[in-house]
Amino acid sequence: MGEKRLELPQGTLDLLILKTLELQPMHGWGISERLQQMSRDAIQVQQGSLYPALHRLERRGWIKANWAISENSRRAKFYELTGKGSKQLALETSDWNRLTGAVNEILGTV
Fold first, then answer.
1. Using CB atoms within 10 A as the burial measure, which of 45, 46, 102, 108 is most buried?
2. In angstroms, rounded to a whole number, what is the distance separating the alpha carbons of residues 99 and 91?
3. How buried is 39 (Cβ within 10 angstroms: 0-12 exposed, 13-18 middle, 19+ buried)?
4. How many other C-beta atoms are found inside a 10 Å radius of the C-beta of residue 24?
């Protein structure tokens, strides 16, 4: 029996999307699949959460989108990290590390 899937805390999805796009541009389905793969199936992002997050990040200028042909020969919107997005990723990663470090201290796991 597999482990329970995790519910993401508010704002975490944005950080995970930015991190996923750090390596290469990807289309929405690819981002979702990559997050699931990297988390060993603990995180599954539904379309109803993913696409609003992508549009929000695009409006903020942290990612940009271009239409291209996907690996299965379909037209898809590919998202990529912008310079502004790279800076935001660094800031959010630092904040996340501070927060999780503090929580670990409180829980006595460090």
1. 45
2. 12
3. middle
4. 11
Q: Which residues contact 103 (CB under 8 A, 6 or more apart)?
A: none
> What would the DSSP string read from start to end of 74-93?
-EEEEEEE-HHHHHHHHHHH
Query: What does the block give as tokens for 36?
Result: 């699931």
What SS3 state is found at 4?
coil
User: CB-based contacts of 101: which residues, under 8 Å, 6+ apart?
Assistant: 110
Phi, psi values for residue 25, rounded to 5°:
-65, 145
Q: What are phi and psi of 107, to 5 degrees?
A: -75, -10
Q: Does residue 6 contact residue 42 with C-beta atoms inside 8 Å?
A: yes
pLDDT tens digits, one per residue of 9-63:
888 999 999 999 999 999 999 999 999 999 999 999 999 999 999 999 999 999 9
Residue 45's identity, in one-letter code, is V
Euclidean distance between CA atoms 7 and 103, whole angstroms:
17
**DSSP β-ladder status, 26-27 and 63-69:** unpaired
